[in-house]
Fold these 3 entries.
Entry 1:
Amino acid sequence: MNPLGEKYLRKDFLPFLFCPGCGDGMIVQAFLEAVDELGIIDDLALAAGIGCSAWIPVYMHADVYKGLHGRAIPAAIALKATKPSRKVVVFTGDGDGLAIGGNHLLHGARRNIDITVVMVNNQIYAMTGGQVAPSTQLGSRTQTTPYGNLEKPLDGCKVAMAAGATMVSRWSTAYPKALTRTFKKAINHKGFAFVEVVSQCPVQSGRYILGSGAPQFNFQWIKDHCVPVDDPAKIGEVEAQGKIPLGDFLKVEKPEFMEEVQKMNKKAQEDRAKGGNR
Amino acid sequence: MKKAEKIEIDRRYCKGCMLCQYVCKFDVFEPGQERSALDYLMPHPAKLENCRVCRLCESHCPDMALYVVAKKQGKEKES
């Protein structure tokens, strides 16, 4: 087994429950590499909801919270608020993060609290059997849209940017090194970091949307349809060709929520000591 | 140039997706005849001498079952 796995995985939970060729295992590996390079396994707290990608943190030897569908971000905010020295990472899927947990994503990003949200996008509800998801491309045939999907897909990165996230990136499983680098940057970033990972799902999105369940075919589809862009201005150009832009789209510094809370507490205590009105 | 001493494929975890064969630029792997503990046909590193320890197969293995052991070279320590 990979030495990273020997070091950081819970052996009694193995093998992974992911289907053969699933991208989630690659994300586990890329994330563990980032954790290993930063040496933060003891400070790490992971949260997840329900979905294939929500199983990612369960295999890691860190503090893990696995809760209700879509409600991982509130739990992560609580973990951060009770101990701000923790490094909190949320693993969520496109259904978990954009559909049922979409509201929590908006408000987490708006608060700019120092957590990292990793959203694994496989363009379908894979765990429940291949139903249409908010990120499913227009015209795709799934179990619940047998004549093609009529709803326009929701772009997680744009939603996060509009809601006020201070770091937004998108990469795919075909770029494991870039993924590791982005995870490191996101964990070190002070503020709400949103990382979308375009991942292959041979069994559900492969069979129903793309037309083949072969892992190689799905992996090649991701390679062909995801284009790294170095300039965020080129995003529209790539999207006009029907492809998915990858890259680090946004990184700005803004006041972080827990630091602001601590400042406010200090100021309130000083005011009270002076005999202020509150 | 780096060379591989061996490529370990953990038969407890391999699911035979053959992405290692697909991402390899030097045709190291071929479909094997041995079955893993999960009853999938595992890849076999048939042309190990072609391997240049780029570790693409390792970082693309979805089950973290694969590990490339590099040959020790001169003063270099084993990575």
Entry 2:
Amino acid sequence: MRRKAGSLVPLEVAILEALIQLRRHGTPEAHGFLIASQLRAIGDERRLTAYGTLYKALDRLAESGAIEDRWEDPEIAAADGRPRRRYHRITLAGEAARAAAEPIPRPHVVTDRGTATS
Amino acid sequence: MRTIDAPDPLTVAGDRSVSVIRAWVALYTRGLPEPLAQARRAVINGDLWDEAEAARWLDETSGLPRQRWSRWVRGLPADISWRIAHGRIPNRPRRSDMRISKVQLAAIGGVVILYAVMIVGLMASPSFREWAGMPVATLGLGISFVGLLLAIPRPQGGFIVGVLGTGLAFLAMPWLFPLYLPLPIVLGYRLFRSQGVTQSSATGT
């Protein structure tokens, strides 16, 4: 079944909600794994969103203008001895899309290390 | 400071998940524009790293391989659809002999159904179960079936496999010869038409 242009699937709404909650708690942009962890907290689920599912949804959101991406400075990544991250930030259009969608209960926030706080 | 060239800290003893996931990402990004493929590989690699770091931080490394396998398997359909959305599979030449008309497709479909009915009927029939020729007949029909499906992308290969299978089935059940006749006719027609198209496109006509 094809979906309407511009419409959001539940996962995309949840990603926008995750980014809003993270920003509210002092993380204005988040990398993929942090978003996956936050999604798990929001949905009160045991499993993390699958790699393919998550990054496909993030790509779609970026294409629709609901989020913006930027690659981390390679020197920062090299200094930490890890691969570069791609950070995602919600846009005004994304906030509007989130506001127009159904509410998602249970606000939790996940820190960068994966621990959950409410 | 740890460098990216250092031994891979993502590896858990005995776990092959990271290498499998990286190989899979390399496979489905193959042939895409390099910036796009590189970006995809990088985000997955970064995610694997952050996931491992979080597991280490929470002292949950024992469940990490299972979590990775689960995330990988559940994401396979999305990976495939993402790949399809970003371009066709590389190194698969756009050969004119792979074109198939509606008539050819309908003919192959009809014979596929015929063979499927024969295979199912053969295997379900109590009178055939004890028959010595049953394995050869089933094998022949099965190979013919594969040949029919193969003929859609590869007319020549499908013709060879299909005729081989039909020959086997004929050896086992010569009395059902009229039922096998449509297969070489359909596959031969498909091969003939595709070669005609190839030659005309090669000569520019």
Entry 3:
Amino acid sequence: MTPDDLLSAYADAQGPDADAQARLMGRLAALGEPATVVPPKRARVGPWLFGAAVLAAAVALVWVVSPNRAQQVEDDRQSMAPNAATPSPVEGDATTRRPDAAPAQRTTPAVTPSLPQVPVETLDPPAPETSPAERAPTTRRAPSPRRKPAAPQTPAQVEPTDTLAAEATLLARVRGSLSRGDAAAALALLKTYDDTYETPRLAEEARALRTMARCTRDGPDEAAARAFTQRHRGSMFRAQVERACSPRSGQEKKSDGG
Amino acid sequence: MSVTGSTRSASDDALTFDQIYRAHLGFVWRTLRSMGVPESAVEDATHEVFVVLHRRWGDWDGRAKVTTWLYGIARGVARNTRRQRGRADRKLRAVHAQPPQDSDRFSRPDRHLDRADAARLLGEFLETLDPPKREAFRLCAIEGLSAKEAGACVGEKANTMSTRLRRARLAFDTFVRELQEASA
């Protein structure tokens, strides 16, 4: 017996048996669908925000220390140099003031020499004229990604519980037939199940029972068991299917017959 | 070395209550048993865990693993159940002790015996571990949780769980080797 066999046997022994599973499935049907639907896992935006902030900082840094920027600053300084070298007409004698120069044009360059040359119209974005109260929502923080959206409770999301109960009941009958060794009856019930429910909710259990019924009827079929376990990895019916379809089970059936 | 893969069977990205119920039924059942819920009460306790899950369904925002959530609910339910049912269960066992019945009739009794023996042997091995290592081994090796997920369940760091699991696995390897030598 391998370590995995030990663990598997322990998990089976400590877990619910088939009857308990069937009973619990029936009780699940009584619960019905919860009123709200679990939202899908939230996308983790924290790392993206952090990355975006780092990227923005890097771009800003590159812009500040870039040679073009340094050249631009140097150009600005050089363009300001004559004004700085010559005495300011504003501070000097009023008689030296050129009549065609406005005072504002004389004073503003000394205050903002390094501002980039941005067209005036871009400084004022073409925002619609709205009152501060109307603009307020645009400045609010976006809703937190962890905040749960209000899940709409539409009638389509709430499935009727009687369908699940009927499915569980029918599969319990299938299980009963298999327990009695009547694989043909079990397969007939499963055919009814397939015909009745186009989108069954207990399809996994139905497939497990069908696989076990075929192995009971036709003999061991490890490939069928393997196909089931590959399709439903981690299924709680795995151990039952494997036991029902193992060659050892078939030998035991023969020894029963002999 | 997991055998159930309960956390892998349903994607956490698109879960329905029905899927969680079916995928984690065994996990909840075994967890309750490991927490000392009497055998006669474990079915009701399992159902109660899912009733709580059903009631709080809208509270889950998907940040935690569903196994972590279920483990936390199971811990509370186990505490209540032990308190309520422990005394009654002891009386019941004293009146008529019955061997556990395996209702799975698809396989032969001797095969049952093999598996039953294996389960009993592993149960005895687990009893030799101290509780923290036992729970680490149970959650990781049997239930298939990662060390991080198991740590989230019991409120420990992943590294702590890894250390416990490594020591438990060493003991398990020794146990298996001795078992194989004895049977050879």
